[in-house]
TrEMBL record:
Keywords: Aminoacyl-tRNA synthetase, ATP-binding, Cytoplasm, Ligase, Magnesium, Metal-binding, Nucleotide-binding, Protein biosynthesis. SUPFAM superfamilies: Class II aaRS and biotin synthetases, Nucleic acid-binding proteins. It comes from Paracholeplasma vituli. It catalyses: tRNA(Lys) + L-lysine + ATP = L-lysyl-tRNA(Lys) + AMP + diphosphate. This is Lysine--tRNA ligase. The gene is lysS. Mg(2+) 2 binds at residue 412.
Length: 495
């Protein structure tokens, strides 16, 4: 084997791999049956003194990675790390035998080993396993990052998550907290009588949200498909079918920019409830998210960066137009024509695209001037009809819809509305979207004839919601970049 392009450390480790083979030891091991874990040992025996442990004679079998090691003649110590924790192991030559002790001496940081031994306390009172058997399991051919500095390059940490998880306790914490949060979300909706379902990832028609899609091709059908940008339309078909309360937790895909808040694939929950509406969805989102936060943290207060976010129920509710007026002084309840709205937009340095109506300008005002000013959980409702093609018109003012978004610390966390169940109105909204697409809006949805036909069979009045799970996890974990709550985020190629 040509080792010339390897670092000195990598060459030495490969030579050790060959030495193991020469001794009849498989460098990459085989099955090893553990009886416990390092965390279980701490949980069960941390309370006992040196003398108590000596009398108990507790034998354990553990396995994990060597993260620290020091030898002192005919004895030595290593720190063994498994999934949940780590523990010190005391290794004596006369206890494990000459051959096994040679394996210990030649072991490198990062190697994976199995240990059988007794739990005891050292003279410094540290809970330790005294090895009676030492088994080499896997040779690490690359050295771990320096223990004092770890992976300093965050981009490299995200790109090589496997190394990041080895050396970064915070990354392991987030990786294990994420599924707990998702289980709490599932438990909440299951407890409310919702049915968890699965809908297709490949969609023949672009719909359910305003976003640019990933496009692929199915060879057998010889037709294009989109990776789903939302689960909305299939789930609402299930409401038509009589399932009445459904939800799906799954990946969505949007062919758009990447930043601290956006990844091309991300996880959401969408839920739909027959006979509910926008206000019912406000209550549901507030109760669901506050309950999950409390069940995970034991309280409602979240420290996010330098801010304190109070997730206790009774969140603020404000109409989008009132929020804009409060910040800018512009009252879009009084501005109904496009000419006046365009003039006001230019005065406020808002760019007006060719396909814009008054509603688009209102949305742009909110995005530019209001969104970043919101810190505590706030429901912003009353979105213009032009930007809400799947929401019901507001009965009192049909320029707006019964839709809301939840904002916390300047970020959107949820989107929900009274679902549009009028098939004639829905067909007209789809047609308006097609006109926008012709005018250059590449995020406009397409005509979904089958969905309109589904509505013609009759969908009960309903409320629907979507919550961005990645952002919710970021909030709970106090993380400011979405890539740090996704195990394998998408990254640019290294130059």
């Amino acid at each position: 084997m040509d080792y010339t392009e390897l670092t000195e450390q990598e060459r030495i480790r490969r030579e050790k791999m060959e030495e193991l083979r020469a001794k009849g030891v498989d460098p990459f091991g085989s099955r090893f049956d553990r009886t416990t874990t390092t965390q279980a040992i701490r949980n069960q025996y941390e309370q006992y003194s040196h003398d108590e442990l000596e009398s108990m004679h507790v034998e354990v079998i553990i396995a994990g990675r060597i993260i620290r090691k020091r030898d002192q003649g005919k004895a030595g110590f290593l720190q063994l790390q498994d999934r949940d924790s780590n523990i010190q192991v005391y290794v004596r030559k006369d206890a494990i035998g000459d051959e096994a002790f040679e394996l210990f001496l030649s072991a490198d940081l990062g190697d994976i080993v199995g240990i059988k031994g007794l739990v005891f306390r050292t003279k410094t009172n540290e809970l330790t396993v005294k090895a009676s058997e030492y088994t080499h399991l896997t040779k690490a051919l690359r050295p771990l990052p320096d223990k004092f500095h770890g992976l300093q390059d965050v981009e490299e940490a995200r790109r090589r998550r496997y190394v990041d998880l080895i050396v970064n306790e915070e990354s392991r914490r987030i990786a294990m907290l994420r599924p707990r949060i998702i289980r709490e979300i599932q438990k909440y909706f299951d407890g409310k009588g919702f049915i968890e379902v699965e809908t297709p990832v490949l969609h023949p028609i672009l719909g359910g949200a305003a976003a640019r899609p990933f496009v692929t091709h199915h060879n057998t059908l010889d037709m294009p498909f989109y990776l789903r940008i939302a689960t909305e339309l299939p789930l609402k078909r299930l409401i038509v079918g009589g399932l009445e309360a459904v939800y799906e937790i799954g990946r969505l895909f949007r062919n758009e920019g990447m930043d601290a808040k956006h990844n091309p694939e991300f996880t959401t929950i969408e839920a739909y409830l027959a006979y509910s509406d926008m206000e019912g969805m406000m209550d549901l989102v507030e109760d669901a998210m506050s309950t999950v936060v409390y069940n995970i943290l034991g309280h409602y207060e979240i420290t996010y960066g330098e801010k304190q976010i109070n997730m206790a129920p009774k969140w603020a509710r404000v109409h989008m137009v009132d929020a804009i007026k409060q910040v800018t002084g512009v009252d879009f309840f009084q501005i109904e024509d496009l000419e006046t709205a365009t003039k006001v937009a230019k005065e406020h340095h808002i760019k007006v695209e060719k396909h814009y109506g008054v509603g688009h300008i209102i949305q742009s005002f909110f995005d530019e001037y209001v969104e970043d000013t919101i810190t505590q959980p706030t429901f912003v409702y009353g979105h213009p009809i032009e930007v809400s093609p799947l929401a019901k018109k507001n009965a009192a003012n049909p320029r707006f819809t019964d839709r809301f978004e939840l904002f916390i610390d300047g970020r959107e966390y949820a989107n929900a509305f009274s679902e549009l169940n009028d098939p004639v109105d829905q067909r007209g909204r789809f047609e308006d979207q097609l006109k926008e697409k012709e005018l250059g809006n590449d995020e406009a949805t397409e005509m979904d004839v089958d969905f309109v036909e589904a509505l013609e069979y009759g969908m009960p009045p309903a409320g629907g919601l979507g919550i961005g799970i990645d952002r919710f996890i970021m909030l709970i974990c106090n993380v400011n970049n979405i890539r740090d709550v996704i195990l394998f985020p998408h990254m640019k190629h290294k130059p």
